[in-house]
């Protein structure tokens, strides 16, 4: 099929950017969206134009690198990652706009690549259980109720892609943070640091310039891993309990 | 099992190999054998304990004066950074991705082995050791493998304490499953995303140390050179991938945890960025590359759909438990709707050739036979090049027998993934599968301490060669990465660091200047060639050569041909590649150019290694070494050794150093699956 692509081009963080239009022919419906961009890049290079920079790595939907706003939707029209989106979701003759994540917390590095290091810093603030190597007790000495362990797993599947932030009108990272608070908070091992964790992570989140949550729910709708909105309730509950304890 | 084995460690059960053939004559130079691997002697079960005791300690007050560079943040690198940071060393961690959490360990699906024996089904450290050595077709080092099995239980304890949400039973205790054809249930798992959960555990532990100030992380940084000064590894030259700045980082010790090189085949299940550059730069600085031809090819991947294909996706091997593999008997049926091909015109070739194991033959056999039927022209799916590269994996019988709901319950997520990628519904149309490169057992040579032959250069995880022999068992990659990172390296690196801090060097040291200059020159070279072909086009062509001649089945003639083709391609690359953009900005073509240049050199060495090894072993079938029935034939009397290759200089021949594999605790046996 033949497509018209409107793609955000920006040389670096300080340069101004603009949408640029490209025609691309010979796109197969079996291509992934990123393979379609690979074909575009080969074409651009043969014409002497610099290829479009975009983040990607595993191309199987798990590393969380890929990050494109496609026709205004994070990861495009299907609920999956951009690398798992295939061109059969589009039609011959379509015009497709491709932009980087749009959020104050994720400044553009180049073209479609953004800086998501704020997520690392939120984890550094408290998204862990302090257990030095070698100090762990026998694994089965602390049973974890199966339903809680399953909920912990379900939300631990977050890939840190940032689609939640990019979709949120407030640019909030509450879903990302709530997923981690819930993952660790559901497990017995996570209890000792439960309340300091939520306070520290929220403080870092705010310092990074992410917005607050106003329960719109775009984040959960866009999440390629189906992290449910109620992790934000759990985050708020833990935060309220922590503040009541005077933390 | 092993009842006639003397575990005292005093009786050597194997005689040293003497190689008769010399297929690679003219392509290499024979070198001195490797005599000392620092592997301790004595009863195998005591070796690690004794060795840990004998390795010297570093005073806690001295640790913060010692700088450690770790390249890579997967299971091996992330776990090591966390653990060494906790111990108080000063760690600098590097990764090319935008966050340590994206390392490709994250994509491992199945699980992690540990000899916990929670099922009371007869598992033990010895049995895990035995299965791993046997699975590796007796080409791994027994002391290393035993240690791996020994620390496996600690890994599970550690991960659970970090909050890794492993599958649990109703009573809240940990669940296990059987994996990879072994007879005990020793695999711990987190649905089909075990690698992700283990990596996030290591990542969080590492980020905690970043906050504590013991670990500094350098993301979007790629190591482009190893600095060896006065005979010791003392640092790296790295490029900041955003600004393009070339940086020098100096330290007392360097750890490479940079993963495997499966992308030499272009198409593989590796991440797009996975590369050999860190390891290959170390190799060029003198580190031996061991058994580079040992690669693992996984039989159940989603086939290539066209020339645009950029990577391959693995589906769990468990599919072979219920799916039946077939191709049409007649070539003319290959483009028909498979549902219209009657039973008598189908060839269930694995069931036909291997009646007792059928569709459950080991990975390498399933892979090789799939390629054989496709090469005969009986493959299915779209034409890719001259062939259809796919075979059917048919669930129609299973759906009839168990019902669609039962099949959905077992494999629903895999069927969904297949449909998302191919657009076909596998409940109605048979799946198509084809083998893909998945893992490499070869890597930089290391001794028992995980130190390479360059002093002060340690190598962990998939980047080293030591634990999997010629084939890796399922659920063992995660085990090895974490064993190296959490429990082995921290206990071996201290023996080296006990002599530190080493004499300070600065950026003006001639070896540092030379390393830095060579990186800058190479980048300028890439940008100035300004030829006609893109980097990707070279990478694809190299991949095709490797897959065709150095993949599942190798032959003497094919390998010689491949070496010539790679040399020609390499010469063309250096005169005709086109890399646009500048050095002082994010430039993904430039990044790829460096990686592909190194893959071209590695590919040639892999072919030379494969040519030399005239035996069928582990995942590899050498056409000249088969039984009358066409089965793999190993030659222990000639090849029970590690082939450790030394760089022979630009344009020179690689030098082969052999390390004989000595077994005291396990007897060598030939396998049979007929």
Automatic annotation (TrEMBL), chain A:
Cofactor: [3Fe-4S] cluster; [4Fe-4S] cluster; [2Fe-2S] cluster
Pfam families: Fer2_3 (PF13085), Fer4_8 (PF13183)
EC number of the protein: 1.3.5.1
Ranges of residues in domain 2Fe-2S ferredoxin-type: 1-102
GO molecular function (one): succinate dehydrogenase (quinone) activity
Keywords: 2Fe-2S, 3Fe-4S, 4Fe-4S, Iron, Iron-sulfur, Metal-binding, Oxidoreductase, Tricarboxylic acid cycle
One annotated GO biological process: respiratory electron transport chain
Record-annotated 4Fe-4S ferredoxin-type domain positions: 148-178
The keyword NAD is assigned to this record: no
UniProt family annotation: Belongs to the succinate dehydrogenase/fumarate reductase iron-sulfur protein family.
Annotated protein name in UniProt: succinate dehydrogenase
TrEMBL record, chain B:
Alphabetical keyword list: Cell membrane, Electron transport, FAD, Flavoprotein, Membrane, Oxidoreductase, Transport
Entry keyword Flavoprotein: yes
EC class of the enzyme, as a word: oxidoreductase
Keyword Flavoprotein: yes
Name of one Pfam family that matches: FAD_binding_2
Annotated ranges, domain Fumarate reductase/succinate dehydrogenase flavoprotein-like C-terminal: 539-673
GO biological process, one term: anaerobic respiration
Stretches the record annotates as Disordered: 1-45
Membrane topology (UniProt): Peripheral membrane protein
InterPro entries (UniProt xref): FAD-dep_OxRdtase_2_FAD-bd, FAD/NAD-bd_sf, Fum_R/Succ_DH_flav-like_C_sf, Fum_Rdtase/Succ_DH_flav-like_C, SdhA/FrdA/AprA, Succ_DH/Fum_Rdt_flav_su, Succ_DH/fumarate_Rdtase_cat_sf
EC number: 1.3.5.1
Gene Ontology molecular-function annotations: electron transfer activity; flavin adenine dinucleotide binding; succinate dehydrogenase (quinone) activity
Requisite cofactors: FAD
Main location: membrane
Polar residues bias (residue ranges): 1-21
Subcellular location: Cell membrane
Biased segments, Basic and acidic residues type: 33-45
Domain called FAD-dependent oxidoreductase 2 FAD-binding: residue spans: 67-478
Family: Belongs to the FAD-dependent oxidoreductase 2 family. FRD/SDH subfamily.
PANTHER family listed in its UniProt record: SUCCINATE DEHYDROGENASE 2 FLAVOPROTEIN SUBUNIT (PTHR11632), SUCCINATE DEHYDROGENASE FLAVOPROTEIN SUBUNIT (PTHR11632:SF53)
Stated name of the protein: succinate dehydrogenase
Source species taxonomy: unclassified sequences, metagenomes, ecological metagenomes
């Amino acid at each position: 099929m033949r497509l018209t692509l409107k793609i955000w081009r920006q040389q670096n963080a300080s340069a101004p950017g603009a949408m640029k239009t490209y025609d691309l022919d010979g796109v197969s419906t079996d291509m992934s969206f990123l393979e379609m961009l690979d074909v575009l890049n080969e074409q651009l290079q043969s014409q002497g134009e610099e290829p479009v920079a975009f983040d990607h790595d595993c191309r199987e939907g798990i590393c969380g690198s890929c990050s494109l706003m496609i026709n205004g939707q994070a990861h495009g029209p299907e609920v999956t990652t951009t690398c798992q989106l295939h061109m059969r979701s589009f039609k011959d003759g379509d015009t497709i706009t491709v932009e980087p994540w749009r959020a104050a917390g994720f400044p553009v590095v180049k073209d479609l690549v953004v800086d998501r290091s704020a997520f690392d810093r939120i984890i550094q603030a408290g998204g862990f259980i302090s257990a030095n190597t070698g100090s762990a007790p026998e694994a089965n000495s602390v049973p974890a109720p199966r339903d809680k362990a399953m909920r912990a797993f379900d939300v631990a599947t977050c890939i840190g892609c940032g689609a939640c932030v990019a979709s949120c009108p407030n640019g909030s990272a509450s879903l990302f943070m709530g997923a981690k608070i819930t993952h660790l908070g559901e497990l017995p091992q996570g209890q000792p640091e439960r309340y300091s964790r939520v306070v520290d992570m929220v403080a870092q989140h705010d310092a990074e310039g992410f917005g607050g949550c106003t329960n719109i729910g775009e984040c959960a709708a866009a999440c390629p891993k189906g992290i449910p909105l109620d992790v934000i309730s759990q985050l708020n509950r833990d935060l309220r309990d922590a503040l009541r304890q005077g933390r | 099992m092993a009842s006639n084995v003397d575990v005292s460690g005093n009786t050597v059960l194997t005689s040293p190999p003497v190689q008769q053939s010399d297929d690679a004559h003219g392509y290499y130079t024979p070198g001195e054998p490797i005599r000392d691997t620092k592997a301790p002697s004595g009863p195998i079960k005591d070796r690690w304990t004794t060795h840990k005791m004998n390795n010297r300690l570093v005073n806690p007050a001295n640790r913060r004066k010692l700088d450690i560079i770790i390249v890579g943040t997967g299971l091996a690198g992330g776990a090591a950074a966390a653990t060494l940071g906790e111990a108080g060393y000063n760690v600098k961690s590097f990764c090319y991705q935008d966050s340590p959490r994206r390392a490709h360990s994250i994509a491992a699906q199945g699980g992690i082995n540990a000899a916990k024996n929670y099922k009371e089904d007869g598992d033990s450290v010895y049995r895990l050791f035995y299965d791993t050595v046997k699975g590796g077709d007796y080409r791994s080092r027994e002391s290393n493998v035993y240690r791996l099995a020994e620390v496996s239980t600690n890994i599970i304890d550690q991960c659970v304490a970090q909050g890794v949400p492993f599958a649990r039973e109703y009573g809240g205790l940990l669940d296990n499953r059987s994996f990879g054809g072994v007879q005990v249930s020793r695999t711990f798992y987190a649905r089909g995303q075990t690698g992700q959960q283990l990596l996030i555990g290591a990542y969080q532990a590492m980020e905690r140390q970043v906050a504590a100030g013991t670990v500094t992380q350098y993301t979007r940084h790629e190591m482009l050179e190893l600095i060896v000064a006065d005979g010791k590894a003392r640092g790296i030259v790295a490029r900041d991938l955003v600004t393009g700045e070339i940086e020098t980082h100096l330290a007392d010790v360097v750890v490479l945890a940079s993963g495997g090189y499966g992308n030499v085949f272009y198409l593989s299940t590796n991440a797009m960025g996975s590369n050999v550059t860190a390891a290959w730069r170390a190799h060029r600085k003198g580190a031996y590359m061991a058994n580079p031809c040992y690669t693992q090819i996984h039989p159940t991947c989603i086939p290539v759909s066209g020339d645009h294909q950029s990577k391959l996706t693995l589906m769990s091997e468990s599919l072979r438990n219920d799916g039946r593999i077939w191709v049409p008997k007649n070539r003319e049926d290959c483009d028909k709707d498979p549902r219209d091909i009657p039973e008598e015109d189908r060839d269930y070739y694995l069931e036909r050739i291997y009646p007792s194991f059928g569709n459950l033959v080991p990975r390498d056999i399933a892979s090789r036979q799939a390629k054989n039927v496709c090469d005969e022209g009986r493959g299915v799916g779209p034409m890719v090049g001259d062939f259809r590269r796919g075979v059917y994996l048919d669930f129609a019988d299973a759906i009839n027998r168990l019902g669609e709901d039962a099949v959905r319950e077992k494999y629903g997520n895999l069927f969904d993934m297949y449909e998302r990628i191919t657009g076909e519904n596998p409940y109605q149309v048979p799946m198509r599968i084809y083998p893909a490169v998945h893992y490499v057992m070869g890597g930089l040579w290391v001794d028992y301490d995980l130190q390479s032959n360059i002093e002060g250069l340690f190598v962990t995880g998939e980047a080293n060669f030591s634990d999997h022999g010629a084939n890796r068992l399922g659920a063992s990659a995660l085990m090895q990465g974490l064993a190296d990172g959490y429990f082995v390296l921290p206990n071996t690196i201290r023996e080296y660091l006990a002599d530190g801090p080493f004499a300070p060097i600065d950026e003006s040291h001639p070896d540092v200047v030379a390393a830095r200059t060579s990186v800058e020159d190479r980048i300028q070279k890439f940008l100035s060639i300004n030829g006609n072909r893109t980097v990707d086009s070279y990478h694809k062509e190299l991949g095709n050569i490797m897959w065709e001649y150095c993949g599942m089945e190798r032959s003497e003639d094919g390998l010689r041909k491949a070496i010539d083709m790679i040399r020609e391609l390499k010469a063309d690359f250096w005169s005709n590649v086109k890399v646009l953009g500048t050095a002082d900005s994010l430039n993904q073509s430039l990044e790829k150019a460096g990686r592909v240049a190194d893959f071209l050199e590695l590919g040639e060495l892999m072919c030379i290694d494969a040519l030399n090894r005239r035996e069928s072993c582990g995942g590899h079938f050498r056409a000249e070494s088969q039984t009358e029935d066409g089965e793999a034939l190993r030659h222990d009397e000639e090849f029970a050794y590690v082939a450790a290759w030394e760089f022979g200089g630009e344009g020179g021949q690689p030098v082969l150093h052999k390390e004989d594999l000595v077994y005291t605790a396990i007897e060598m046996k030939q396998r049979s699956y007929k």
